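Action item from last meeting closed. Structure (454 res):
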């Protein structure tokens, strides 16, 4: 199989050869036409000058053919039976003042009287202000001399040499251009092979801003995303193993101690075991929900829903937990909001995860505000708190699975670490977006989900 470099080089060479050959042919044809026209003009000028000088010297046209033959303007006479080839017919005919042909040429015969229209196409010969004759072009191209043939041959040779030189230059440039164009492709091919072997962190140098440069940039971004996803997968596996190990270790320890009689069975111990079992159940349920959302198989039944109703339902569900910690939980919707096209149960799950997250990081006596307003592209449902907040670099990662931006917050009881990831997946399944913002640690956070209107 021929390489792309060979194919591009061959294509450039063929195109260049076609262009050079066409240009050379056109230049040669134009040169030959113009050169023949130049020779014809020179012959005609000489024919007229010699004829005029002869008439001025002799006062008549008698003997003018011999004078023209001596100047090489007419072919010499051929003796019958000499075996010499017939000369080329003369390109000009000479007529006297009466329009009678005195020097035959081409279709014009000796002693033929020409029509005024034909005479008008000739070059008049004037002597002392009177027209004494005319030179008529017969349509026959004049024969070129040896010098003229040599000159035209040199021009033809120069054109062919120029065409050959152009072809060599085209070949060299074609190879350079082809290798330059295919270099990013070769580098991308090598990087793709490394990617197939598992080497995900091998960026390719971006050498241009054209389509190949954009392709290289996209490949580098894909490679970086794959490396990041692979890192997240490994981290997620480790986090899942850690979250599963803790409750299993606790329950295994209690079960073994109870079986061997080391610890007596008490209600408190069974409550601890039950709590760990619930934590495992929530973790498995969240993992299943997240996997269904990633696969696009999470059941959705969107219908027109008023945003205030979502906020009121949510505030009522979490009001008791907020009062237990003296946290003010309020809900406020802008007037005249349009209906949103959402699955109410799934959207309440999204907002519920956001409110649970706010309750978890808002101190006692704090404030959590639920709000709805019209924005470009839909309606924004937000959850704002005045809690712990987070650094700006953490806000872009909080939706990653098992991500903990603050080490002091890890290990929150009863939490799987997947709530925000699930909320983001469900929001995107609604055709919306979920974002997080914080002005810094201790300045609270804002989580906003934007959903399309009906």
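Sequence:
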């Amino acid at each position: 199989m021929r390489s792309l470099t060979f194919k591009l080089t061959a294509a450039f060479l063929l195109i260049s050869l076609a262009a050079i050959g066409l240009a050379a042919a056109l230049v040669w044809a134009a040169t030959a036409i113009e050169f023949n026209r130049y020779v014809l003009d020179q012959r005609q000028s000489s024919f007229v000058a010699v004829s005029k000088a002869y008439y001025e010297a002799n006062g008549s046209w008698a003997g003018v053919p011999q004078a023209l033959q001596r100047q090489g303007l007419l072919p010499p006479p051929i003796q019958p039976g000499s075996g010499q080839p017939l000369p080329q017919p003369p390109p000009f005919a000479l007529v006297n003042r009466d329009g009678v042909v005195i020097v035959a040429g081409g279709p014009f015969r000796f002693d033929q009287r020409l029509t005024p229209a034909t005479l008008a196409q000739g070059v008049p010969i004037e002597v002392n202000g009177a027209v004494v004759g005319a030179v008529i072009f017969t349509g026959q191209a004049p024969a070129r001399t040896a010098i003229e043939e040599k000159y035209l041959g040199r021009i033809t040779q120069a054109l062919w040499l120029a065409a050959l030189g152009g072809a060599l230059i085209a070949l060299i440039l074609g190879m350079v251009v082809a290798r330059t164009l295919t270099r990013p492709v070769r580098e991308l091919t090598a990087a793709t092979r490394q990617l197939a072997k598992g080497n995900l962190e091998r960026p390719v140098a971006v050498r241009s801003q054209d389509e190949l440069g954009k392709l290289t940039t996209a490949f580098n971004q894909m490679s970086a995303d794959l490396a990041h996803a692979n890192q997240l997968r490994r981290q997620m596996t480790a986090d899942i193993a850690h979250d599963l190990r803790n409750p299993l270790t606790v329950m295994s320890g209690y079960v073994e101690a109870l079986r061997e009689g080391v610890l007596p069975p008490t209600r408190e111990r069974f409550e601890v075991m039950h709590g760990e079992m619930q934590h495992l159940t929530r973790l498995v349920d969240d993992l299943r929900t997240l996997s269904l959302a990633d696969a696009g198989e999470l059941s959705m039944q969107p219908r027109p829903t008023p945003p205030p109703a979502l906020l009121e339902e949510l505030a009522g569900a979490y009001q008791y937990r907020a009062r237990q910690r003296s946290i003010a939980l309020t809900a406020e919707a802008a007037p005249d909001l349009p209906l949103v096209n959402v699955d109410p149960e799934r959207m309440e799950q999204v907002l519920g995860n956001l409110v649970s997250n706010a309750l978890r990081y808002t101190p006692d006596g704090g404030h959590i505000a639920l709000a709805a307003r019209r924005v470009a592209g839909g309606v924004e449902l937000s959850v704002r708190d005045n809690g712990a907040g987070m650094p700006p670099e953490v806000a872009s990662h909080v939706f990653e699975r098992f991500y903990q931006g603050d080490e002091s917050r890890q290990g929150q009881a009863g939490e799987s670490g997947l709530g925000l990831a699930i909320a983001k997946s469900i929001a995107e399944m609604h055709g919306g977006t979920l974002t997080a913002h914080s002005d810094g640690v201790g300045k609270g956070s804002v989580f906003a989900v934007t959903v399309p209107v009906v």
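Note appended to the action item: The chain has three domains: 1-75+87-199, 211-294, 303-451.
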